């Protein structure tokens, strides 16, 4: 990870021409100097993933657009919330996206739609993940790591992450004790991380 | 879960928490623990990085969506102004989420009011005087020139800064504003994390002088109501950094 002084030095050279070659963290610093075009560059890099993840979770294009707008507005207004020492900008944006999307799914107005779609979604999350990551440069590695996870760990992770279910709901859906599901999510994420050390560094 | 939940019980929940999959009543207990437990914080960060891989779904957002985001920015408060990551950290407190910290501006920049008023008077100066002074300032040894650019990267104004803190700002494409509105200059120094009112420029200026105390790092122009504001109320139209 670049030091703060290196990032600062990099910022000095930020302008409209070289934004594309600027690191994510330096772009966030540029937000703090009101460079709206830095936000546009961040959007160009990560807007697609933010929108795709939200679409996947809320299962509604218009609502996914709302979430995407909220996520980038939040980054613009509170860039100081991003801490580069605690992970990448992409990870931060996707965590924001996920939290907001789950809120939408869990809201009272969305509950019925969610219940209607539950059966289909379970099938989707179990079977559809590989299909959606194939275009990524790292897709093959992520896919292999996911496939390598024991099914018992993979199912609750997918139900929680893409389905917006709590671990307790996942326990009911999978007919397992809550404690077992908690542990499987934790060990599954750890196993995924260990299988992708170089990808983790880059993301 | 009780407030006195053990480290072990909470760490068991970190995976589910990183996926936003815990119950609402558990969130507060987990967050309180994580704030004071570096082990759990490290584990949580690692889980979130792993979760973000799951979220790496390839897609192009709808074409109109950026325009929609951009429109929402125009209606929103601007971000806290910070020159580097350390200043971001100082902003990272609930009370200063908005950079328009009135108390900070009032207590930290008392001289600013005088400066702003002084420059308000300067705004009555004829442009010709400031323009001539700015032109001659360029050739002063140690003078620095600075472009103030809009969000699109276009130069909207220029500034000349002299070693003694005297400065001049020149219009380079800012449109005339309607009656009741004015351009206002803001200066940023290494000592202050909030912008300092640098003077009221009027609604159709050509050149104005200003004074900077401390090591100047950036200059910005916003549109404000006639008479100016104690702190910026809109996203800057032009920013120049040193």
Structure in words:
The complex is a heterodimer of chains A (203) and B (242). With 203 residues, chain A is mostly helical. Helices cover 75% and strands 0% of the residues of chain A. Chain A is built from 12 helices and no strands. The longest helix of chain A has 23 residues. Chain B is an alpha+beta fold and 242 residues long. Helices cover 37% and strands 22% of the residues of chain B. In chain B, strands 1-2-3-6 form a 4-stranded antiparallel sheet. At the A-B interface, helix 1, helix 2, helix 3, helix 4 and helix 5 of A face helix 1, helix 3, helix 4 and helix 5 of B.
Q: What is the strand tally of chain B?
A: 8
Rg of chain A (CA only): 18 Å
Instruction: Give the helix/strand class of chain B.
Output: alpha+beta
Total strands of chain A: the figure is 0
* Chain pair with largest interface: A-B, 92 and 65 residues
Low-confidence stretches of chain B: 91-125
Q: What proportion strand of chain A?
A: under 5%
Categorize the overall geometry of chain A.
globular
Give the overall silhouette of chain B: elongated
As a percent range, the share of helical residues of chain A equals over 70%
On the 0 to 100 scale, the average pLDDT of chain B is 75
Question: Helical stretch count of chain A?
Answer: 12
Spatial gap, N to C terminus of chain B: 52 Å
Give the structural class of chain A. mainly alpha
Largest sheet of chain B: 4 strands, antiparallel
Amount of helix of chain B: 25-40%
Helix segment count of chain B?
A: 8
How would you describe this structure in keywords?
heterodimer, A: 203 residues, mainly alpha, 0% strand, globular, B: alpha+beta, 4-stranded antiparallel beta sheet, 8 helices, 22% strand
Give a nutshell description of this structure:
With 203 residues, chain A is mainly α. Chain A contains twelve helices and no strands.
Secondary structure: elements and pairs:
The complex is a heterodimer of chains A (about 200) and B (about 240).
Chain A: H1 4-12, H2 24-31, H3 36-58, H4 61-77, H5 89-106, H6 108-127, H7 129-133, H8 139-148, H9 151-161, H10 167-174, H11 178-195, H12 197-202
Chain B: H1 7-18, H2 24-36, H3 38-54, H4 65-74, H5 85-91, H6 102-108, H7 110-122, H8 127-137, E1 144-149, E2 155-161, E3 166-171, E4 181-189, E5 196-202, E6 207-211, E7 216-225, E8 238-241
Antiparallel strand pairs in B: 1-2, 2-3, 3-6, 4-5, 4-7, 7-8
Helix pairs in contact in B: 1-2, 1-3, 2-3
């Amino acid at each position: 990870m670049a030091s703060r002084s290196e990032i600062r030095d990099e910022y000095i050279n930020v302008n409209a021409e070289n934004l594309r070659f600027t690191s994510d963290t330096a772009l966030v610093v540029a937000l703090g100097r009101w460079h709206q075009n830095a936000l546009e560059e961040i959007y160009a890099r990560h807007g697609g993933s933010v929108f795709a993840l939200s679409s996947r979770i809320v299962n509604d294009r218009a609502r996914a657009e709302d979430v995407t707008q909220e996520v980038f507005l939040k980054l613009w207004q509170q860039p100081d919330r991003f801490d580069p020492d605690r992970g990448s900008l992409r990870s931060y944006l996707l965590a924001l996206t996920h939290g907001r999307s789950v809120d939408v799914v869990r809201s009272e107005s969305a509950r019925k739609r969610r219940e209607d779609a539950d059966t289909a979604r379970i099938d989707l999350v179990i079977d559809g993940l590989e299909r959606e990551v194939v275009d990524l440069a790292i897709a093959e590695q992520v896919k292999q790591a996911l496939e390598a996870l024991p099914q018992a760990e993979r199912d609750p992770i997918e139900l929680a992450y893409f389905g917006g279910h709590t671990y307790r709901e996942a326990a009911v859906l999978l007919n397992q004790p809550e404690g077992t599901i908690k542990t499987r999510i934790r060990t599954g994420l750890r196993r995924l991380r260990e299988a992708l050390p170089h990808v983790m560094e880059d993301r | 879960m009780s407030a006195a939940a053990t480290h072990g019980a909470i760490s068991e929940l970190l995976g589910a928490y990183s996926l936003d999959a815990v119950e609402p009543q558990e969130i507060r207990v987990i967050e309180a623990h994580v704030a004071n437990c570096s082990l759990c914080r490290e584990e949580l960060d690692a889980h979130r990085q792993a979760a973000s891989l799951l979220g790496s779904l390839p897609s192009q957002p709808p074409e109109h969506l950026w325009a929609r985001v951009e429109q929402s920015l125009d209606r929103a408060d601007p971000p806290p102004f910070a020159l580097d990551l350390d200043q971001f950290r100082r902003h990272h407190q609930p009370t200063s989420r908005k950079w328009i910290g009135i108390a900070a501006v009032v207590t930290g920049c008392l001289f600013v009011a005088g400066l702003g008023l002084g420059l308000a008077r300067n705004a009555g100066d004829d442009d010709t005087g400031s323009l001539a002074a700015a032109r001659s300032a360029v050739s002063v040894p140690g003078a620095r020139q600075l472009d103030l650019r809009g969000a699109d990267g276009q130069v909207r104004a220029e500034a000349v800064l002299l070693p003694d803190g005297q400065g001049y700002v020149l219009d380079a494409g800012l449109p005339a504003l309607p009656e009741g509105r004015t351009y206002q200059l803001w200066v940023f120094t290494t000592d202050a994390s909030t912008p300092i009112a640098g003077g009221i420029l009027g609604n159709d200026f050509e050149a104005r002088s200003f004074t900077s105390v401390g090591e100047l790092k950036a200059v910005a122009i916003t549109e404000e109501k006639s008479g100016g504001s104690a702190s910026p109320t809109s996203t800057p139209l032009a920013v120049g950094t040193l």
